Amino acid sequence: MRPGQATRSDFPVLDQQVGGKPLIYLDSAATAQKPRQVIAALSSFYERDNANVHRGLHALSMRATDAFEHARARLARFIGAADPAELVFTAGTTDSINLVAQTWATANLRPGDAILLTEMEHHSNLVPWQLAAARTGATLRFLPVAGDDAEHGLDLDRLDEFLTPQVKLFAFTHQSNTLGILNPAAELCRRARAVGALTLIDAAQSIGHEALDVQALGCDFLAFSGHKMCGPTGIGALYGRRALLDAMPPWRGGGGMIENVEFSGSTWKPAPERFEAGTPNIADAIALATACDYLDGIGRPAIAAHDHHLAALAHAAIAGLPGIRILGPRLGSPRAGLVSFAFKDIHAHDVVTFADQQGVALRGGHHCNMPLMKKLGLPSTARASFYLYNTEAEVAAFAAAMHKVVKFFGA
């Protein structure tokens, strides 16, 4: 199956109208829609296999456990991890990053150490490190973006200035949710290793669009969310190298993560169980494995090419509108599957509200990128983000809606 029109029948939510017009969903960077196969997997578990995992000896519990651990192995293969034990189920990217910030960072960072981030980080890969720095006495550094509209991405010419031996962790986004830039993750990991720093990749935006291999990337940690890759909400994972995970203390206590409990103290299971206290999100983990099958059935290289193509068409279609400012790569340069833009005299929320009346679902706001927005002198932008179920006809409808916005508001 090819991305585009051929996949649309798999997504029942798209078969509806909004305001009397066919829904055009261009907000997949916030959350992707779910195919029937994923919905069916979720329903099947609750209808047939619903039971707790790991501790039961009856048939339903054993089936649930087998499916849950199969899901772990499937996600490990999806990202190229060599060992399923390197895959910890979490509630999503935010949860995964907080896990590392509250365990590895607390145990390893000291005053005088530094954490390197970038100026394009989502709040989920910024606020946890602010809290970790406050706890440990470490300092934060920020690799700048280049250009007035960040059209050149990260200022890599200055990387050596910021990535010094004092840096113990370099945490960065693989793909910016505002700029549509895909960062050179393997190169950044290589440069970090050269100064003895660990790396954490926020793959929330790239996980459902690009082929990822943690061994080829050379990262130490990688965080992602299921709902960005056609899976359910409230489920995601943290990849961590096994030696690192086994050396990290647990961050939540309870059943399932213990080896032995006495009144005087407890000992912990090895990774990944030590980080999965309590009843896990079993059904959503199983459905997420089905999402992996679905995406690989289409092919992530084909999905990436499709999304990049639609974003390039959208960029070209609106670039000439009066008063528009488009962030990220310039027209003709490679761009991931989204376009973030602002009109000089029209607030982003007005753009999004008007577009919704045309059946076009966009996102408007600071996109959890407040520091970047302030640096670029913008309170907010509107954003169109594309995925495997979008079509060229929808891009044309989006462009037509933006022309109507300009005419309506007299920009």
List keywords for this structure.
Aspartate Aminotransferase, domain 2; alpha/beta; 2 domains; four-stranded antiparallel β-sheet; globular; seven-stranded mixed β-sheet; Aspartate Aminotransferase, domain 1; single chain
Tell me about this structure:
This protein is of the alpha/beta class and 411 residues long. It folds into 2 domains: 5-30 and 300-409, Aspartate Aminotransferase, domain 1 (Alpha-Beta Complex); 39-296, Aspartate Aminotransferase, domain 2. Helices cover 37% and strands 17% of the residues. The chain contains 14 helices and 17 strands. It has helices at 36-49, 59-78, 93-102, 104-108, 127-136, 159-162, 185-194, 214-217, 242-247, 282-298, 300-318, 348-357, 370-375, 392-409, and strands spanning 17-18, 21-22, 24-25, 87-90, 114-118, 139-143, 167-173, 198-202, 221-225, 236-240, 258-262, 265-268, 324-326, 338-343, 360-361, 363-365, 381-385. The protein has a 7-stranded mixed beta sheet with strand order 4-10-9-8-7-5-6, with helices on both faces. It has a 4-stranded antiparallel beta sheet with strand order 13-14-17-16, with helices on one face. Strands 1-2 form a two-stranded antiparallel ribbon. α3 (93-102) packs parallel to α5. The radius of gyration is 22 Å and the shape is globular.
